[in-house]
Amino acid sequence: MSSLVNRDRTAAKRKRLDIELGEHQRALRERGIPVMIVVEGWNASGISDTVATLLDGLDPRGFDFHAFGRPSEEEQAHTFLWRFWIRTPPRGRIAVFARSWYSRLLAEELHGIDCPSRVNRAIRSVSTFEQHLADDGTLVLKYFLQISREEQRRRLLARERDTLTSWLITRNDWDFHRQYDAYTPLIQRIISETNTPETPWRVVEADDTSRAVMEVLSDVVDRLRARLALPDGCRSSVNLPPVSMPSPVDPTKGQHTVGRQEYDDALPDCQARLRACQYSLFKRGIPLVIVYEGWDAAGKGGSIKRLVQPMNPRGYSVVPVSQPNDDEIAHHYLWRFHRRFPAAGDVRIFDRSWYGRVLVERVEGFATEQEWRRAYAEINEFERSFVESGGGIVKFWLEIDAETQLRRFREREEDPLKQWKITEEDWRNREKRDQYEEAVREMLARTSTAHALWTVIDSNNKPYARLRAQRAVIEYVEKLI
What we know:
The chain is an alpha/beta fold.
């Protein structure tokens, strides 16, 4: 009799929680708050049952479900976190992960190795990934279903004997079971070091599956209620350490000139070496990112055109970056750049980039002060993670003085073939040159790191600037390979 009463009480509680979960989902959508729910745990710990219960209370039009196994060929060609970044939810949606970067970290990155530095890098990258999302307003909920070694063995054996579930058991399940004791300290360390106030873990004792499922469901509802009780836009302030911010203008500006004949003489050697560099990158499976930033009319387009001229078009692409669309605005601002990053062996050239957050978005007020201040650390981590995963980054700032810019603006206005290059926005930006100069100085000072140095190119003389960019890429790649 008591078991029937408990069952009825559980059913009634489940119904109340489902109703409240649906109400919270609608409120989150109206408020534009993204949510990530991660359910991790030992094999056979009840992850599928837990996720199924969560999804049952949600409107399927407002969530995305992700289950991760072995990476696809395309995913293998990118960095480890790439396939998780591109699946982060837009504002107002919920993403539910049945296993996540944590399981894949153990299966792909840390399985069978004894390399403390690699473990440290992996944990730091995952923790930073979650922190960036949390700082941007994403509510990150993480659950680990804990069962004993004996309980895991009992469940694996029971599933093997059941014709309806035997297909779920694989050799990997038993391999991990046999290494239960070996993996326990590493899992505990990962949970401990990624358990932050913004992205906390909840470890759920799951020997009783029904009780564990209700505990997770109750906690999700409580956490969503608590988040909805907070006012929008409540972010902690960002304190930046002072840095030296010298002018990007080369003190020898005006001395860097290359005549037409000198340019024509030097070009064949540069093009041959660029072609060899691209081949070497492809052969070794090294992805390369080349970033072009600079003043309007500094010559980014012409430099890019000469840079790719000798390259095989099947191995490179150019990404012109303009204002984000609605889908991109709904995500973390780095999301759209993660999606366009190159696969192994490819070259991706960005004509403007993620640095828009600390340049045009800062100056024009499209990003809040907290957002652009936070972006320096986010960008540095973004680039560091890519380089430590085996990629390369070359960054150019093309510098021209105000007089040269004005002359080129007027030339564009007067030339029918170049009028498309000049817009009202170019003139408006020029009026704020002092503000942009301050932003440029701070950008160069805070984001020129050991992983991704800036190369400032005096671009008053176009032939010089084009050769300088080509030679910088050649020098970087020849060291990289």
